[in-house]
Amino acid sequence: MELAVRIPGQRLDLLLRANLPGHSRSFLQKLIADQRVVVNGQPSKASYRVRAGDRIVVTIPPPVPPVAQPEDIPLQVLYEDDDVVVLNKPAGLVVHPAAGNQTGTLVNALVHRYRGQLAGIGGVERPGIVHRLDKGTSGCLVVARTDAAHQSLVNQFRARTVRKVYRAVCGGKFARPTGRIETTIGRSMHDRKKMAAGAPRGRTAVTDYQVLRQFAEYALVELTIHTGRTHQIRVHMAHVGHPVVGDPVYGKSASASRALSISVARPLLHAYKLGFQHPRTGEWVEFTAPVPAEMEQLCPI
Length: 301
Prior knowledge:
Elements: E1 2-3, H1 12-19, H2 25-33, E2 37-39, E3 42-43, E4 56-58, E5 77-80, E6 84-89, H3 106-113, E7 138-144, H4 147-159, E8 163-171, E9 178-187, E10 195-197, E11 203-214, E12 218-225, H5 232-239, E13 269-277, E14 284-288, H6 293-298
Parallel strand pairs: 7-13
Antiparallel strand pairs: 1-4, 2-3, 2-4, 5-6, 6-7, 8-12, 8-13, 9-10, 9-11, 11-12, 13-14
């Protein structure tokens, strides 16, 4: 595969990320390290600054079969066909294997249910995975069953055409029933394990909110995110003084509202709706995951 230089002076690794959005950063770095990225006939480093007229050839190895072990973990399937699967992920389920979570993940369940019928483009530990939800977040998640579907969905997420609507229980009384939160979000300068709004090297993050019902100490809020930053809703709601109830990380931040008299086991955040163009038909499809019982009991509508 030959890539064109559109921005002279751009780093080689950034050019790869821009032209190959369906691959993870670690996958692209490995391509460079394995000398599968050749510039003008010679292997190059990630830091190389490309120039107009450079001939950049990338050799992508064929997908490696998933190595995650199949596990018979129940899945709530909202929709499935030969191209995609839409799931209602339960809170507490990690999406893919990683350090400390090599088993018992959504990927292990997917490998068991769809043996050999998941997109391999995501790598051996993330077959079919297009996007993620935090461990404590429940709700809609789409999985690709073919490489073509994976590429289409990644492109849609990248272009911000996917509709992502969440519901959350947030602390405090809202002064306004609707609003938009627009900041940058990046790695916290004080705690590298956390994200922070207004981070100097952060990326733009946009969240719209609507209060569906206000209670004495908290509110049921519907949120539409127009970007997909790490922990975006949790960071944004804590930033404006209305942290997600049950959030052990951002709910205790300095910007959090006063302590609540209720206690829950996980952040009450749920991916309520997910809409996208079907990769094969181009038809707009939208799915809704029922709100979990603990949220309904706390915030009956």
